[in-house]
Amino acid sequence: MRISWLFYIRVGERELLLPGPLTLACLIYMGYHILLPRQDEAETQPLLPLPVEELAGVESFGVEYLFSDSARVSARMLAQHVIEAEEGEEKKTEKVHYMNQGVEIQFLNQAGQAHSTIKADSATFRLDQEIADLYGNVRLANHQGEHLETEELHWDKQKDSVFTDKFVRITTPDKVITGSRGLRANTEFTAYTIYGIQGEIEAPDNGL
User: Which residue among 25, 127, 174, 180 is buried most deeply as judged by most CB within 10 Å?
Assistant: First the structure.
C-alpha cells in the first residue's frame, strides 16, 4: 500500500522538495532561466511536441526530477533542456514541462538501483497529472535484457505503468514480438499486454 509520495526537482546542486500534486504548479523551482532561444537556434534542436513559439515560458538546463514513494526515491527523470509553460483555459490551467534535447527516466528498486530505463528524443511532463509523454526513438529496457521500441510512450507515475497505442517492437533474449496497436506494461517491464500482435519470431543467435 502506498503511504505517501514526494516530488523533487534538482538543477545543478540545488534541490526542491514538493509534498503533493496540488502544490506542484505553484512550487516549481528552476535553478536559472533565460529568454527562449532565437528561432534560428530552435531550428537546430530536436522537434518539440508543439511549435516553440507556442511555448512562451522559462527554460532550464540539466534538470533532474526525483520521485519518491513511501519515503524512498522510486524514479528519476533527467532532461538536458526544459521549457516550462502553461496550457488550458484561463480558469483551468496546467503546468507542462517540455523537454526537446533528450530525456531519460530511470525506475529504481528498493536498493536504489535502476531496474528499467526509458530514453527518448523529447517529452512533455504534465505536473498535476504526473504523466510523461515521450516521443521519438523511444526505448524501454529492463535488467533482464528485454527492451521495447516505439515512437511514442506514456508513463503514468500514479499507476506505475507505461502505455501506447502506436506500433511496438519487443525484443527478449529468445524472441521478437511486434504489435500494431500498442501495449500496456508495468514500469519494470516484467508484465505487459500487447495489442494487435502481428508476429512473433525467434531472436537471432549472436553466437553463430
Answer: 127
